[in-house]
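Researcher: Re-running this chain for the archive, since the previous output was lost when a drive failed. Same request as before.
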Amino acid sequence: MTTPTDNLDPLFHASSLNDKAGEVTHQFTTLPPLSLYIHLPWCERKCPYCDFNSHPSPGGGLPEKHYIEALIADLDSHLPQIWGRTLSTVFIGGGTPSLFSEAGIDKLLSEIRQRLPFNDLTEVTMEANPGTLEQDKLPGFRAAGVTRLSIGVQSFNDRALQKLGRIHDANQARRAIEKTLSAGFRSFNLDLMFGLPDQTATQAREDIDTALGFAPPHLSLYQLTLEPNTAFAKQPPSLPDQDQVAAMQTDLHDRIATAGLNHYEVSAFATPGNICQHNTNYWQFGDYIGIGAGAHSKISFADKIIRERKIKDPARYLTASRKGDSRAERHVSTPAETVFEFMLNVMRLQNGVPLSLFTAHAGLPLGQLLPGINAARDQGLLTMDHQQLKPTPLGHRFLDDLTELFLP
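Model: Regenerated structure tokens:
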């Protein structure tokens, strides 16, 4: 009796003959797609569940001009690493990027275009919160080159929004979506959460049904979790129990599927042709430059992968970036780390990835995956054939257990 790996001997074992401990190195014949992430760290108010690098707006107003100058200096420091490469996507995240002016976003994107060629189909996403979206800003953002908005709705229930510490109410959330449509954005995402403080199954269902009533091309659905170093971690709210949350999740996923959105990643749903290209590049282990306070980068070279992180504090970042180096950390990935990081990302995708993506985007021989693959298949967490590496439904349910099998 044969197994899928028996027929893959030429792929796995021929390349593994030289894979002695400590001798495997990254080798890229072509480099992965390249994305750009831009972090704008300020928001009106820090939400009690948020563990992102975000900060309340300074009392004297946003240092928009100086921060954009720092972002461009930050990007300039990366240019020698990426000569000749084209951007496939851009994502402006935060914080709340829509606090910046239309002119500021236009200036930022114009400066980037002067330095890096954009792919003809480049997706440019900007995050926005309903409480900071003004109708007269949206056409300006669109004219600046933003092609997609990601709107942080979280809930359409006023009491839930208050408990989450959000600055908007349900009516503002509805108006923000209507404004997005009237401004001509046909590509947009709605962020929603479930398992909220004291939330009932009916309330969770009403949130989803309201969102689906706007026919969003993309929907992100997250379970509220209590992250360390947040206000909720210090003073936990009353949350539904795990059985209630599991039942909510099943019900919500069914309703989203009935509305015609495909569940393509753990927390992401989209109509055909509307998946988030930027996030998909992360999940497919592509490359990305991160500019801005606390932003991360992953950049592949012919023989290595380098990861970097920028200084998190906005004031320190501003000073350091203008001096030419805002890096807080730099790390050259080992092959063992790359195996785990690759699987940590690609197994989030509902349909998995082609086997060939490992050699293309990780720069390593397929034999490096074999021990983890065999262990995952034995536990019913993973399936594999000649073309595709894919988590089983059990593997998706126990994703942490699946990916831990590939730890160094």
